[in-house]
Design brief:
2 copies of one chain form a homodimer. The first copy, chain A, has 457 residues and is α/β, with parallel strands linked by helices. Chain A has 2 domains: 9-146 and 386-442, nicotinate phosphoribosyltransferase (Alpha-Beta Barrel); 204-369, TIM Barrel, CATH 3.20.20. Chain A is built from 14 helices and 18 strands. A 6-stranded antiparallel β-sheet of chain A has the order 15-14-1-5-3-18. A 6-stranded parallel β-sheet of chain A has the order 7-6-13-12-11-10. In chain A, strands 2-4 form a two-stranded antiparallel ribbon. Chain A is elongated. The relative contact order of chain A is 0.17. The interface between A and B is large, with 103 and 103 residues.
């Protein structure tokens, strides 16, 4: 819910004070930037620009909102000209005369460099401060967090954002899904984000699904058509039970498990009957190696007999590195003993309280995980839940309020580059191409702002 | 934006799987609770219930949403009965048969105790899991954080939530304002939250306002009417300048400052002219004791001559304990030397990166701050940005899936109470009154759920 009211009260009191001082139309330039990279890192992914542009493109106060602003300002404010200046005029003028230049969304950016430059009548631009800072702050933070997770996980792994239930509010969850995708994740579990932004959706089932079943006896509809539609297996449960016995009798696998959990088996069979082409099972409700993995394999092998290929397993607790390696060995043994093509490559997803540090630790230990489902630490940015974005006045009426260098680099010229944080690290670089990072995203219009912003609507 | 789509994909895949297994109507009970208090503390404030009830009260899928869910499910799903079961039927049935009991919002709660108990057809209740966990998680976390800040600050201090620009997304900001107020804050700077929830609004001006002025010369409209309307001061600036000279010549104050910053003075005068009844100045743009406080006092004294009472100052950097004590001494000296009633009690607000720990440190050092404006640490719950709320199946078809004690305590009977975390701490208590903590917040309706939840719309 982005409305022009999503701002601090003092943006309105300042606008009124600018107007009272006759300064509201003075041309001001504000820079939006941050002072330090998050997570102790050396880069930030710039995100949230689209939302800022959307805000200004749709910037209008409703009559109701204007009445609320009036009521919120001190009673001494002069509001006698209300009838003269209709809200439509206010709404039309607010954004017309503002220009926004910015670095493109998704670019890697650094501290103290302007990410956005907003120019316009001081009273109008001032109104955008809190909203813009809010929209850039979390978006850039979580996109950066996602990029850092991608960097540690490596390019070949599937990264799934599973953070909705831990995100800071419903919209926090939607922003998280959007900006994690921008930062390099492959998919989300968040259906609303999938619908809004076209992000691929992923999901399987929870522990509740497994524990809601008692035994395979309660499954009444047991038949399953083969993948190509050519035949029907009348009793899929028996086929699964037969595979379970075969696995138990196997030389290689027999010692690993005895009786598996029947409530879990019932849940897996039911899930496979519902989604024979997309069978992915959560295997840690009872015991991963003694029940979950054997039960999964029995169902997967029965599906294989009907031409279906199971997707894989999900591990959500325990020693993920060890369990993934054991599971992989189990799959490979089946591949070898029963000659099931590619069974050894069955996908393993892990998803228990993962973050950059645990991903790194898993890499060091060695693991067989193909996909990571990451929630809490990713979406709340646990390591640092806020980025210090600021919105500073740098110029008013062509008078600088912060000194800026006017040097422009040219291609082919040798230039001295400084490390952004370590003064002693420097290098000469000859740029092959020089690109203007700031582009115009909101051109504004000519003319001056003549309305009274807050007092007079 | 709370829609039934704000959930994980697997809630829908499970609903479909329950239906395929013929289990979708089985009566299930889910408990929502958390396992550990946040911030290393011993209590949590329960919040977010109203949003959960609103979600269920307005639970309906649009045609568009149903089409999206269908498209997101694996293609093997049976959707041939779509025409039979209109979305209206699906929408009507989803919530009818669900009962919700919960502890009242705002109550202090403890780990492992059910906060909400949701009962209904397993496939329907399962659909609520992610949304409910999301809505309770951050709400309870930030309400608890606010309560902890209130506890450290003490009852007499004014607590202002200033977190919007650092909150995790726009809606994160609105939730923060709402639940900080519930947790014991007095006001917010967030205009949208003020409008939505009637929370008192507070705000003054920013550093940009101060630096946007050059000198008092640029102020063209210099007159100010007295508070009672009986006379007009034609040149308020001269009156302020006269006070500044008086302060400079004073025996007690003279040594503290020399020339104050004129751009700051111009900003303060302008702000006072705009809000003579609500003059609150940010005094740390240049130098608090050598410029900000003397400038503020000169303006406040000129206002006082016209019958207005200045509100106070805001400190946003530096050693807040020291600066507040120095400012208080300055105010008291004026009170004494010039006989300005209550000037010594002028309000001091502090607002720089405050949190529980810094509030505690300020208390230990001794300070003269009357109001705290708290942002980043409060709203992002920096110390622990997520609460581990879970949603667990405890019963299905009257079969327990988690063992629960059935003991009910009675008034007048001696009962043994255990400390929730320390097993060795116990005490006998004779309750004078026994109150049922769980109340019914959504009564549901009789009848069974007969539609196909996801597959058939």
């Amino acid at each position: 819910m982005v409305t022009p009211l999503l701002t601090d009260l003092y943006q309105f009191t300042m606008a009124y004070a600018y107007w009272k001082a006759g300064k509201h139309n003075e041309r001001a330039v504000f820079d939006l930037y941050f002072r330090r990279n998050p997570f102790g890192g050396e880069y930030t992914v710039f995100a949230g620009l689209e939302e800022c542009i959307k805000l200004i493109a749709n910037f209008r106060f409703t009559e109701d909102e204007i009445a609320f602003i009036k009521a919120s300002l001190p009673s001494s404010c002069e509001v006698e000209s209300i009838e003269d200046c209709k809200s439509r005029k206010l709404n039309a003028l607010c954004w017309k005369n503002v220009e926004i230049h910015a670095i493109s969304e998704g670019f890697v950016v650094f501290p103290k460099i302007p990410l956005m430059r907003i120019e316009g009548p001081v009273a109008v631009v001032q109104l955008l401060e809190t909203s813009f800072v809010n929209l850039i702050n979390y978006a850039s933070l979580v996109a950066t967090n996602a990029a850092r997770h991608r960097f540690v996980a490596g390019k070949s792994k599937l990264l799934l954002e599973f953070g909705l239930r831990r995100a800071q509010g419903p919209d926090g969850g939607i922003s998280a899904s959007k900006y994690c995708y921008m930062g390099g994740f492959d998919a989300t579990s968040n259906v609303a984000a999938g619908k809004l932004f076209g992000i691929p959706l992923r999901g399987t089932h929870s522990h509740a699904f497994v524990s809601s079943f008692m035994s395979p006896d309660e499954i009444t509809e047991k038949s399953l058509q083969s993948c190509d539609g050519s035949n029907v297996c009348e009793d899929f449960i028996s086929s699964v039970q037969a595979w379970l016995s075969k696995l138990k009798r196997s030389h290689v696998l027999g010692g690993i498990f005895g009786e598996t959990n029947q409530s879990e088996l019932a849940a897996f069979v039911s899930y496979a009957l519902a989604f024979p082409k997309n069978f992915l099972a959560l295997v840690d409700t009872y015991d991963v190696m003694r029940s979950g993995v054997p039960n999964f394999c029995a169902v997967a092998l029965a599906l294989n007999d009907l031409g279906y290929k199971a997707v894989g397993i999900r591990l959500d607790s325990g020693d993920l590195a060890y369990l993934s390696c054991e599971s992989r060995r189990f799959f490979q043994a089946i591949d070898k003993e029963f000659g099931v093509l590619d069974f050894g490559k069955t996908s393993i997803t892990a998803s228990n309280d993962l973050n950059e540090v645990t991903l790194d630790a898993l890499n060091k230990q060695g693991h067989e995980i193909d996909a990571f489902g990451i929630g809490t630490h990713l979406v709340t940015c646990y390591g640092q839940p806020a980025l210090g974005v600021v919105f500073k006045l740098v110029e008013i009426n062509n008078q600088p309020r912060i000194k800026l260098s006017e040097d422009v680099s040219k291609a082919g010229e040798r230039i001295l580059c400084r490390h952004p944080f370590n003064e002693s690290k420097r290098a000469y670089v000859v740029p092959q191409r020089v690109e203007e990072l700031m582009k115009c995203f909101w051109p504004g219009r000519s003319g001056t702002y003549s309305g009274v912003l807050v007092a007079a609507p």
